[in-house]
Write a structure and sequence with these properties.
Blueprint: H1 8-13, E1 36-39, E2 45-49, E3 64-66, E4 84-85, E5 119-120, E6 126-127, E7 130-131, H2 134-156, H3 165-172, H4 178-198, E8 214-216, H5 219-228, E9 232-237, H6 255-258, E10 272-274, H7 279-292, H8 330-334, H9 337-345, H10 380-387, H11 414-417, H12 422-441, H13 455-463, H14 477-489, E11 499-500, E12 508-511, E13 514-517, H15 524-550, H16 558-562, H17 587-601, H18 610-613
Parallel strand pairs: 4-8, 8-9
Antiparallel strand pairs: 1-2, 2-9, 3-10, 5-7, 6-11, 12-13
Helix pairs in contact: 2-4, 4-5
Biased composition (Polar residues): 317-327
Region (Disordered): 313-338
């Protein structure tokens, strides 16, 4: 046997050939040695590791299909769950933290919630839409805050004058979920811990980190990972076995023993097809992740042909006031809504305010700020600029070109402040809060069929009754309400577990963690918070609609729109973020978001102002 070459057939038949060069018991294991080894299927390759006691089965195959499984992960193609082949463009993958045996405060990073983990509000008009519990969100936010501090330190670190663009990109999407968090952690750890060990700046370690690790056929990578303390598995062709020391034989750990391999109930499309070491696979994961959490744009249901020769809309700033901010003080938190309405009756509305307007009168001017003590404070410079827009007909596209142009993705806040009584406003607010989760959910997936709704449709919806009707009625208000919701919510009611609530009298609603009881005045600060969210959501979707209409590219880049907001989301509005982003007090804090909007507008067709042309 010693004189005969070892073939794949021989090795598969007799795996003990792996330990023919086993070292002595006290002989140290070098980077090129195998503490353990395993034979891969067919015997053409064997895998060793100098610093691990187990061998994972590598994702083999030149035409392997990658798609999301029923746990919304990529099984053994997922770099967060399973070792991947080393590629230079993803050198930090081997440093991604591995799920620890004993879970602590970081267990949220590997949490796979099911239906029983979610909070479902029984007072909603649409049931089955769950939310992550607040304590879990707080847990993740704390970790995100700590990691953001690391990113800020990296940005200021003069030892790294050339910043890694991928780390900065990942930091922008940190709030989107666990994947950016784990990958960003790996990137920073690689820069500050593992790479210095590889380069000799820090001494090598004899301990192996609890990270994912990597497969490689490059001896240099094996040596570097061993010095750095990162798990590494060396893949050898069978003909090299005579020169390799392997001390112990193990069976490869199969993905099916540790990962979810079952298809989802609604099978997902293949994201990538090819070999695991193809750099395109990583790009496919990144692209699909962004598309998977993209939002449906309800304003693109119809195609609108732009008018030829239409001049650009001219805007001029008026006044020299500083922006006021949606700050909520402790006094405001204790105020009751009755005081808001009492003050309101003594105020004379500004132009465009909806109070005391006859139903047959002209609609309010949407380019003028509303006036009401129920509304959060506006930013003066934005109000001035909006009021200065030239709204003459020559600058407008014919409304008949798109039936959705006059609609709203969410209710117009003017519907709430335009009521003639406190009781009606309270009724509207209660109804909206019971609808809120469903109407946010209907826009949460790119496959949605939701459309913007006219103001009258929103008014009818908010005006509908939830009171149980007498049995035997052929056409009740409740059944009409159900038909309306079925039509408006569309595809989202076809999702598993999502259904309309049964008829009955609902006497309470929730805002954040506060329970609101029908008939009890809603605190003024809560009203302002509810309307602030509606203003913000409508603004974001109208900006997305404007971008989809005005941009010059064939497809709309939602990331460019989302980058204009500190939450990095279309549907998440953090009240604590009210004084940052575009509403920040300091210009240096506003600047990143103003520049993001400037970059967004630079892609629009037509006459571009000189201040924006630099980005074209």
């Amino acid at each position: 046997m010693a004189n005969n070459p070892i073939t794949a057939e021989l090795l598969e038949k007799d795996p003990l050939l792996l330990i023919r060069n086993r070292g002595k018991q006290d002989e140290p294991i070098l980077w090129c040695d195998g503490r353990v080894g395993a034979v891969l299927l067919g015997g053409f390759f064997f895998v060793t590791s100098p610093n691990m006691d187990v061998v994972y089965e590598p994702p083999l195959g030149k035409n392997q299909e990658m798609f999301l499984r029923c746990d919304y992960r990529y099984a053994d193609d997922d770099p967060l769950l399973w070792p991947q082949p080393y590629i230079p463009s993803a050198c930090h993958y081997g440093a991604i933290p591995h799920r620890p045996e004993h879970m602590g405060r970081m267990d949220i990073l590997w949490w796979n919630p099911d239906q029983t983990d979610l909070m479902v509000n029984s007072s909603d008009l649409v049931l089955g839409i769950g939310k992550i519990p607040l304590d879990r969100l707080v847990q993740f936010r704390q970790l995100v805050g700590e990691l953001q501090d690391r990113v800020e330190h990296y940005k200021l670190d003069k030892n790294h004058p050339v910043k890694n663009s991928e780390i900065l990109t990942l930091s922008n999407w940190l709030s989107q979920g666990l994947s950016p968090y784990l990958e960003l952690t790996a990137g920073l750890d690689y820069l500050y811990i593992y790479k210095p060990r590889m380069d000799g700046i820090l001494p090598p370690t004899t301990e192996t980190a609890e990270t994912i690790g990597a497969f490689t056929m490059d001896s240099t990578i094996v040596q570097e990972f061993t010095k750095a303390g990162l798990p590494v598995w060396f893949m050898h062709p069978v003909h090299t076995l005579p020169g390799v020391r392997v001390d112990s034989i193990v069976e490869t750990r199969k993905p099916g023993e540790f990962l979810e391999l079952r298809d989802a109930k609604t099978k997902f499309d293949t994201v990538f097809r090819g070999s695991a070491d193809d750099p395109q696979k990583r790009r496919a994961i990144a692209l699909h992740s962004r598309q998977f959490i993209s939002y449906y744009n309800p304003f693109t249901l119809y195609v609108v042909e732009p008018r030829k020769g239409t001049p650009a809309v001219r805007m001029s700033a008026q006044g020299n006031r500083q922006a006021t901010l949606p700050t909520r003080t402790e006094e405001g938190r204790q105020a009751r809504s009755s005081a808001c309405f009492k003050d309101n009756r003594g105020l004379k509305p500004k132009a465009g305010a909806p109070y005391h307007r006859s139903a047959k009168g002209p609609g309010r001017n949407k380019f003028l700020e509303m006036s009401s003590p129920l509304l959060p404070p506006a930013i003066a410079v934005w109000s001035d600029a909006l009021a200065a827009v030239d709204t003459s007909p020559k600058n407008l596209i014919n409304k008949t070109s798109s039936p959705t142009d006059g609609g709203y993705a969410f209710p117009d806040p003017g519907l709430f402040v335009g009521c003639t009584s406190e009781e009606k406003t309270t009724q509207y607010l209660h109804k909206w809060l019971r609808l809120r989760n469903a109407f946010i959910y209907r826009l949460s997936t790119a496959s949605s069929s939701a459309q913007p709704l006219k103001g009258q449709v929103w008014r009818d919806l908010l005006n509908s009754s939830d009171t149980k009707q007498p049995s035997g009625s052929q056409s009740t208000k409740a059944s009409q309400r159900a038909e309306m919701l079925q039509e408006l919510l569309g595809a989202c009611l076809h999702e598993t577990g999502v259904e309309l609530a049964p008829d009955g009298a609902l006497t309470r609603a929730f805002w954040k963690e506060s329970e609101l009881v029908m008939g009890v005045p809603i605190p003024c600060n809560i009203i302002k918070e509810i309307l602030y969210e509606l203003f913000t959501l409508n603004f974001r979707y109208e900006l997305l609609a404007l971008h989809s209409r005005a941009q010059s590219a064939d497809s709309v880049n939602q990331d460019a729109v989302v980058a204009c907001f500190p939450e990095q989301s279309m549907l998440i509005v953090e009240l604590a973020q009210g004084n940052i982003g575009l509403a920040a007090e300091r210009v240096e804090d506003r600047l990143p978001y103003l520049l993001a909007m400037k970059r967004l507008m630079s892609t629009w067709v037509g006459s571009i102002p000189e201040a924006i042309q630099a980005y074209r």
